[in-house]
Amino acid sequence: MRVLAAAAVTVVTLALAACASGASRRVPQGFWGANWSFEITSASPQMQERNWARMAQAGVESQRALFLWSVAQPNPNSSFDFSQTDQLVQLADRHGIELLPVVAFAPIWARQYDSPSSPPRNPDEYAAYLRALIGRYGPHGSFWSAHRKLPKRPIRAWQIWNEPSANYQWTIPQGTDWAPGYAALLRAAHSAVKSADRGAKVVLAGLPNRSWQDLDHLYRVGHVHGLFDIAAVHPFTAVQHGALTVVRRFRAVTRKYGDGRKPLWVTELGLPASKGHSNDPNPLQTTQAGMSRFMRQSYTDLVAHRRQLGVGRLYWFTWASSYSGWIFEYSGLYLFFPHANHGKDLLQPKPALSTYVQIARQAEGCVKTTKGTCGRH
Hints:
The chain is of the alpha/beta class. 40% of the residues lie in helices and 16% in strands. It contains 12 helices and 13 strands. β12 (367-368) and β13 form a beta hairpin. α5 runs parallel beside α7 (178-196).
């Protein structure tokens, strides 16, 4: 911990020196993001408040979080329960962070198949939840009239599901093509979003693995041209400069189908530091030092080529995780383990956090406060 503390002091000193020398902002507002997932999402209100304040200080300007339909409408005839999403919107709003909701996971009654990750049986039922969310958090949302003391930051971008090309996120019978079903959902979602808020943006689900091939398939089979405003990719790769290579291939496909000018968001980017802690043979695994190197290289590459490739945002996966079990639980900038320390929650910074803070401050041109404003240049 003493080594980590010394490293953090060095990072802050370097960042302040850079800002004092007149550094200017190199990326658009909201470019620096992270994912809010795993156990931290169920932590105590005090712990969540601490983390959102730390995110703002670290340079996080946009946060990607699940808006769970399964939680909001567990029964078909019940009204929508916004308590969970209200909490997220308040946390983000208090700390000057823009929210990107990932609207996913159908309740039991709305699933096509018997699986938590089943696609909805009826895209129109999913679309109804989207319209309700915009009615709550959009420009004329009821949330803002009920919370007049908060700064009004309406949600204007909605991501439609997560990784539907992966069976564990879009569970359908073996041998069934995922693309037509997802395209039908996207079509219903696009219509719902635009009817509820003409200026809102529809964000394509992030595609992982051989994302460029899956995107080509989605265009050909699903005919999705015109059904989204922002493309999204998850370039998970351990190859040197691999994230840049994947994004280039992905962008080439959007250009092929006439969407080359649409923004492209990297809504998940990371590498799990699970090497030596897991028996999983997945080749993505690295060490803590390797995760930091991957972050610096990937962010440097994508910032340098962001104009050429139309990259509008980068969301690190993930902000905090337990560092146990599944390999991607080893990808957090913080270790968070509930009730690990004599019944108290354990929160511990990992080495990649210092890297994240340093490169965020260089790109944003200032040191951020807990409210997300520039405290010092």
